[in-house]
Every structure is written in structure tokens, then in C-alpha cells.
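User: For documentation purposes, I need each entry recorded in a consistent format: the amino acid sequence on its own, followed directly by the corresponding C-alpha cells. There are two entries in this batch. Please keep commentary to a minimum and don't merge the entries.

Assistant: Recorded as requested. Entry 1:
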Amino acid sequence: MSKASAVRFEGIVQPWGNSLGLRITRSVSELANLKRGAHVTMEITDEGLLIRRQATEPRRPLPFSEATLLDGLTPFTAHADELPILIVSEQDH
């Protein structure tokens, strides 16, 4: 959305615990492409408060695969001898 096509909405700043909150309506969040949990930046300007959606970073691949992490794992190196032994009584069946 360019500056020329900016859409303006009004809201009311209200108490939220010991802070102040501004409700973002569904229509505003959809137009601004904001979703629950979105990260934003807030900037204080001469005109007030400017809120911008942060660009999402692509997930980086993990440095190790599951196969690499399990390579060479034995019951001894996994300390399997320290695991508790499950005792099942006949009443449990």
C-alpha cells in the first residue's frame, strides 16, 4: 500500500493492566497483514506512534540432521543402563 493509498482508522487507547492498549480490529490486521504473534517495530515520530510489521526471517536449516546426531549412539553411550525398569503388575492388564 503506497502513501497515496493509505487507509486511516480511528481507535481508542484504553487501560490494559498497568499499561495502555490499542485494539487492532480484524479488518485493520488483514489490511496490514498482521497475524497473531507477529513481530512489529514501534517508532516515535513527530506525529505520534508508527507501528511497522517486521519482515519475517526465513528459517535457517538446523546444522545437524537426526541421523548425524544418532550416528554412533549405542545403549552404553545413551546410558540405557541408567533407565528405570518398568514393572507391570497383573492388575494393570
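Entry 2:
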Amino acid sequence: MLPDLTFVLGGAASGKSAFAEQLVVSSGKSRVYLATSQVFDDEMRAKVDHHIAQRGPDWHTIEAPLDLTPVLTDLSTEQICLIDCATMWLTNHLLAESDLHSAQTALLQAFKNCPAQIVIVSNEVGHGIVPENALARRFREAQGRLNIALAAQAELVVQVTAGLPMVLKGTLT
């Protein structure tokens, strides 16, 4: 049985989303996919459509690029929610010039108030070189802080590398 909050992180194309989807499916609960990406071009639309088709009809997909609180509040204990991903959510707030601290605080509080189990996916960005531009450095620092906060609040933290999960906190049953 999964805890109330599970945090799955890894590098780009590491298998983290597929692993998170497997966790959600194995729960046996009604599945909600909370998508944080925004579609701005045909390439992204094709990618989103492919992922929706790949997941299949047993998922209810909700697009929420910025404010996740209303969706999380409306969920029930019979549901499990996969949020994919915290990295896109943060990027959306950064580009919208939101107050990142307030947005992060609201997100973490929404997790505490959510009646459903949550699995959230995020990118680990701390393994690369220091970016050469200010916006990229600001993003990397903000993502690192968000990941630290998510890991602190989650009861289960799993890092996925090359499709292989490694439990960092809690127990995977």
C-alpha cells in the first residue's frame, strides 16, 4: 500500500514517469492524471496525445499547469492522483513570474489537505553542470529547493535511474 504522498524523481528519460504510473495502477484505486505541461505547438500536442493513448482509458486526465489546489481538494479517498510533473509546474510558475515561495507553500499545503493518495514526479536537476545563464540557474536552484521540500514531506521517495527504482526514504511494498 502506498502512503499518502509518494515522490518519484530522476533525470530526463530515466523511466520515472513509467515507474510512477505502475505504482498508481498497482494501487487498484480510481486513477487521476494531473498534467502540468502546457501545449504550445504540434510536437507537444503529439507527445501529450501519445501519452494519453499509452495510459489507456482507465485514467481521468486533468490539465492544471499552475493551480493544483482545486483539483486536489476535489479528489476522494477512493482515488489516487499522479502529478506529472513538478518540474513543468515549477517552470510554468517561473515563466509566469509567480512568487515561487508562495506557490510552493500552497502546493505543499494542498498535498496535506488532499483526501486522495498522491504520487508526484519530478526531475533531479542537481547532477549537471552550473548553467551559463541566469534564468537557468534560477530554475535549477528553485527546482532543487522544491525537490528538497517534496522529499521532506513525502513518506516514500524513490529515485529512478535507467528504469531502475532505488528507494531513498520509506518502504516500497
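Summary note for entry 2:
The domain at 5-169 is CATH 3.40.50.300 (Rossmann fold).
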